[in-house]
């Protein structure tokens, strides 16, 4: 027996003074209200209403039970309200600074359609992992090797001038190959992680570039500013290049990509973010979705 539902019918009929009116208050059909009250009477072993009159008049037993039924109904309503607030409690998610405000707004809007209410914390790769560890956020999009990622973001090189070739080869940046000052490749903080940075350094050495020709910038803004107005190159995604108004090309001879997965203090939060928001996060990151 649904004790709460039966008590709601009992209280509603009492307050309305009739079975028809009480059913309307409880937003249930009148026969359902009658069946619920009859079930409650059988459960309690006594009549709650005197059915010899046209109005729903309480029996002495019904009057004695009414306060308890009212308390149960109020508690049930309070619990439902608390549950709704709990579902709407923001899930703080640490995200890369590579996502634009528009990207994050679209991700948040999509999350709301599946009853996930996000609150973002923008941070670098190392900080995102630490924020999860210290429980300052409930979940984070953490940097992982691309082969291990749920999301992968192909990286290339972007420049202010339109490249002549469809692929940028690092060998073309060697001293003597290009006129003027040596061109540099700028690595932004989001890519200052071993699975990206070390591959870039190995490719630099294999191409015969000087160590100073690949430099890690302190911020994305600094990295982009170093490219604008110069012949230098920015390691970035195609989406970032479009946002910055730069021409993007893949790097020849080496696969460079970011990888992302979800980390969270509670396993349930991983599932709440990773599964229903997989495609939305891919769009936010400018990512390919790895195959299952």
Give a short overview:
The protein has 292 residues and is an alpha/beta fold. It has eleven helices and 13 strands.
Structure description:
The chain is an alpha/beta fold and 292 residues long. It folds into 3 domains: 85 residues, Winged helix-like DNA-binding domain superfamily/Winged helix DNA-binding domain (Arc Repressor Mutant, subunit A, Orthogonal Bundle); 76 residues, no CATH class; 100 residues, D-Maltodextrin-Binding Protein, domain 2, CATH 3.40.190.10. It has 11 helices and 13 strands. Helix 5 runs antiparallel to helix 11. InterPro entries: LysR_HTH_N, WH-like_DNA-bd_sf, WH_DNA-bd_sf. Belongs to the LysR transcriptional regulatory family. This is DNA-binding transcriptional regulator, LysR family.
The count of DSSP E runs of length 2 or more, i.e. the number of strands, is 13
Which structural class should the secondary elements be placed in? Answer: alpha/beta
Bulk shape: rod-shaped
Largest sheet composition: 6 strands, mixed
CATH superfamily of the largest domain: Periplasmic binding protein-like II
**Count of spatially separate domains:** 3
Q: What is the first-to-last residue Cα distance?
A: 44 Å
Say what the CATH topology of the largest domain is: D-Maltodextrin-Binding Protein, domain 2
- Helix/strand order, N-terminal first: HHHEEHEHEHEEEEHEHEHEEHHE
Which whole number gives the mean pLDDT?
91
Total DSSP helices: 11
CATH class division of the largest domain: Alpha Beta
The order of strands across the largest sheet is 4-3-5-12-6-13
The portion of residues forming beta strands comes to 15-25%
- Over the alpha carbons, how many angstroms does the gyration radius reach? 32 Å
Low-confidence stretches: none
Helical fraction equals 40-55%
What's the architecture of the largest domain, going by CATH?
Answer: 3-Layer(aba) Sandwich
């Amino acid at each position: 027996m649904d004790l709460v539902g039966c008590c709601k019918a009992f209280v509603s009929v009492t307050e309305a003074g009739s079975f028809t009116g009480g059913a309307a208050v409880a937003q249930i059909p009148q026969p359902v209200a009658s069946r619920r009250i009859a079930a409650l009477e059988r459960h309690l072993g006594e009549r709650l209403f005197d059915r010899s009159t046209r109005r729903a008049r309480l029996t002495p037993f019904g009057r004695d039970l009414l306060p308890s039924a009212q308390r149960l109904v109020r508690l049930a309503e309070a619990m439902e309200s608390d549950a709704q607030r709990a579902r709407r409690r923001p899930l703080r998610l640490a995200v890369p600074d590579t996502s634009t405000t528009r990207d994050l707004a679209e991700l948040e809007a999509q999350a709301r359609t599946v009853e996930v209410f996000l609150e973002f914390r923008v941070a670098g790769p190392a900080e995102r992992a630490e924020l999860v560890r210290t429980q300052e956020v409930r979940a984070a999009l953490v940097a992982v090797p691309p082969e291990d990622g749920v999301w992968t973001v192909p990286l290339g090189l972007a420049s202010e001038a339109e490249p002549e070739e469809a692929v940028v080869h690092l060998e073309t940046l060697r001293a003597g190959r290009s006129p003027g000052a040596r061109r540099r490749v700028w690595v932004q903080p989001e890519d200052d992680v071993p699975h990206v940075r070390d591959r870039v350094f190995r490719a630099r050495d294999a191409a015969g570039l000087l160590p100073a020709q690949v430099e890690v910038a302190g911020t994305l803004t600094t990295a982009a500013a170093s490219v604008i107005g110069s012949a230098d190159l920015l390691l970035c995604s195609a989406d970032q290049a479009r946002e910055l108004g730069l021409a993007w090309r893949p790097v020849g001879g080496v696969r460079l990509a970011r990888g992302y997965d979800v980390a969270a203090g509670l396993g349930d939060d991983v599932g709440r973010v990773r599964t229903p928001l997989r495609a939305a996060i891919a769009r936010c990151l400018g990512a390919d979705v790895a195959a299952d």
